Amino acid sequence: MPTDQALKLAQEADLDLVEVAPTARPPVCKLMDYGKFKYENAQKAREARRNQTNVVIKEMKLRPKIDAHDYETKKGHVVRFLKAGDKVKITIMFRGREQHRPELGFRLLQRLAGDVDELGFVESNPKQDGRNMVMVLGPHKKKAEAKADHAVVQAEKEAARAATKAERDAERDAAHAAGPVAKKKERGRSENLDPEIEA
Fold first, then answer.
1. Residues in domain Translation initiation factor 3 C-terminal (predicted)?
2. Is the pTM of this model over 0.85?
């Protein structure tokens, strides 16, 4: 259809003539309310942005001659990050003569990967990067799954806390209810048994 005819049709229908496929031969156009079309596209884009998950890379730095306790602490952080669905970049920092012993860093990274293999996998193998050696661990669970699991665990903890609080409140109320009567009985017994009062 010639462009002027299409424009006339659009004016008669009180709509806009919108080119939807400019690369096609001939170009494809539609009669539509352009303002409404723009609004719907913006809504779709906003919804897509809301549903997309941002991949966060956490970083953990270690030394080749790390102490056993420090290693356990750092491993605990890595476990927490992987449980939350985040990737973890492990960096081994070499200083001085340590640079001539890269196998120490490689063994340490392999050990860490083995210790957390039920939560994550080696996404990028250990690589020497100047004075550092870097490895990236990826989580088995996606971020959304990790969030859902965390929400379930939090709800269970909250329910357990509420049950414990209700038990304590019931015990306290029972103690308050029986409290004054029990105290009077105690006082009565002590008055009767006191030898000075009898004498």
1. 55-139
2. no
